[in-house]
Design goal:
single chain; 130 residues; alpha+beta; four-stranded antiparallel sheet; three-stranded antiparallel sheet
């Protein structure tokens, strides 16, 4: 942190920092989804892994490694994918009881039909029905 580095047009910005001198358009589409580059000048914050589109910038590194915005976003995505939502946990508990109960009810229905003699075919009281 506190190191200064130069970013030329077309290069990626190495880490989160503050522009000390220069002005440029920075492509932040990787983070924001915005297709139009953002204009930055002296005093503006820039995010690591974005691309300097036009001018030369002198940047002071403010955050490096796991402290950068990109690293924090990756950590949040990983946590979101590894955990389950409260609704998903509730659905898992309900299905853990509901599915066996439905299967048991279907088995009881099958056995009762077989035991009570419903396996033979009966004539319908209405001739148009099978």
């Amino acid at each position: 942190m506190g190191d200064e580095f130069v970013v030329r047009p077309g290069e990626k910005i190495a880490t989160d920092g503050t522009v000390l001198s220069g002005a440029s358009a920075v492509d932040m589409s990787m983070l924001t989804g915005e297709s139009v580059p953002v204009q930055v000048a002296e005093g503006d914050a820039v995010v690591g892994a974005t691309v300097n589109a036009s001018g030369k910038l002198l940047i002071r590194a403010d955050r490096v490694g796991g402290d950068t915005q990109l690293a924090q976003m990756a950590k949040l995505v990983e946590e979101a994918q590894s955990g389950k939502a409260a609704v998903q946990r509730l659905a898992d508990r309900v299905s853990g009881v509901f599915v066996p109960a439905v299967l048991l009810l279907a088995l009881i229905t099958l056995i009762s039909w077989l035991v009570l003699g419903a396996s033979g075919r009966r004539r319908s009281p209405r001739p148009w029905l099978f």
